Model the fold of this input.
Amino acid sequence: MPFTLSPSKISQEINDWNRDLLHGLSILDTIEEIDVGTAAADIIYQEDRLTLKRYTPTTVINANAKPLLIVYALVNRPYILDLQPDRSLVRGLLQEGIPVYLIDWGYVQPVDQFVDLDDYLTGYLDRCVTAVCNDSHCRSLDLLGVCQGGVFSLCYTALYPARVDHLVTLVTPVNFHTHDNVLGHLARTIDLDLMLSSHGNMPGQLLIDAFRSLMPTNLPVRKQLNLPQQLKTRDQALNYLRMEKWINDCPDLAGAAFKQFMELFFGQNALLRGRFQLGNKEIDLGQISQPILNIYGSKDHLVPPEASQALRGLTNSRRYEEIEINAGHIGLFAGSRSQALLPKKIRDWVTT
Amino acid sequence: MKQDPLLQLQQWLEVQKACWQTALQSSNLDTSQLDNLLSACRQAVAAHLPEQHADIAEKMTLQLESFCRYGLNVLKILNNNDSDALQSAIEALSQQLQQQVNADFAQQWSIPAHLLQLLSNPQAQPLPGFSLIQSLFTHPQGRSQHNSLKLLGAYEVFGHAFNDHLIHQQHIIKATNSQLFDTLEHDSEISSLAQLHHLWIDAYEHHYSLSLKDNDYQQSYGQLANAILELQRQLKRCWEEEYRSLGLVPYEDYRALLEQHHTMRRTVRTLTQRLDNLEAQLNADINISSNNSSSNSNSNSNSNSNSNTQTSHPPQHDPIS
Done:
């Protein structure tokens, strides 16, 4: 029988564990504030809940670089791209001489429940593009879309091709029906009308719980059990707390836009058709001739590689390249390996 | 004066050590002192730490409590020289961890506490009736019997979906325990509680992920989610009726107003943008004609600085065009 637990071993283990926990609590006691998104920036445009930021350059601007507008997802908050100084895609891009702008969609309110995808794409996003162009005295810019923001960027470029020079998609789902997209399978079983008539907007907390429900014991049990190990030093604790703050900071999603997104992409897998109707506009991915750099993570369980790779061949891009990074969905832009790799790759792509 | 919670926790650690010493020598443990002190510590820590850490501290101390209790359980089993020690330890662990998973599940879907109790009980019986819903049905007291019937119907659907989902959950737990027994008997040597926890979690996640990919499980998940949403909607409808009877604005009316408001805002934005575009176009035309007349009058001049400035701004375009 390989069960070699003995009373003295158990006693020792629990004492050790409790001592670590006590130490962890004393470290927590020294932390007043969890600072995130600290790269210097100015707000150049505001509308309803959204703010458009222009980051302060940290080096000489690359003469070949156009302004790069980062379009983040509506899910979670964009400060994951500047979580802390040594885990910041934004700072990495600035260091490469790219003028960086970012849309922060803000926190949706009950009054926003009828805001739909058309409002986001031809309204908010288009006005942000105009504001960036005005600010940088350019006629067009480069787009960097992250996850759902990548879907928005693809649709926007198809609608207004003259306004976009280069397109970079990061962990962007294109095929929503891959066999390993478990979240998609579950999402399709939910009655959206019922959901929205109960809640108005899609509650952010429900989304957090839906992500957690993909690994129901890993997060609540294993993570908590290992927690004292994450709090050994103040720096370690801050690393952990910043990520925790981000994970649990998920705004509600505007009801109408959420429903449209679910029906069009999760339901009809519209991007894969290449041409589809959004409100009264037709989106034709064939209109995209811009160079596209498509970056995804080999360990991404939310947007599996196959879901991103589906973009190949759907557009008329004159230069299309894929980069697979050995990382998960978040690790791809917050992990140390990507920090060294991504900004340079993106710089090379948008400046040639 | 309030005592420093960390000092209290230090005391708790000492008491615990003493408690463990007793536990090592006896199978009859009194953990009441330990429980009381831990409860006091938890409250003190939550009150002392900044609000943003209170949740983490709470989770950590709860996990600690759970881990300690499990340790004591295993210790009792070992001290009793139980011949089925392994099986008993795993069953106890499984039950404890399943309770945590269920609590998370219930929180996700806002399942009421008394239903959570059923979730935690592996021998769960078909759902008993809610007294509130029954009273709504049998004694409408001015409420619409139609709404009460709908609520009762939603509750019944929820009950079926819930029981169906329980069967899936129990299947996962059974497969998890079975895999854990196999692993322990053939491959692994367990020398710590944490190792046992991690093995259980690995086995559970494996069987859970298999279920997630299974069409039956997905359908059951959807049925339960939709049944909960329907139940919430019917409960809301009952409240709506109460609001109306009190002369308050019900949610449905508020929602209709929001929709009208949104449509109006969109129209105003579109019209404003069109006006801006027309104005820009008009200004551009005026500039062109004034440039033409100035170039006509100064045909030898080659200055065009105005038009350069103009092109530095992007053209506006009509988003609805």
The two ends of chain B are 70 Å apart (CA to CA). Residues 59 and 283 of chain B are 64 Å apart (CA to CA).
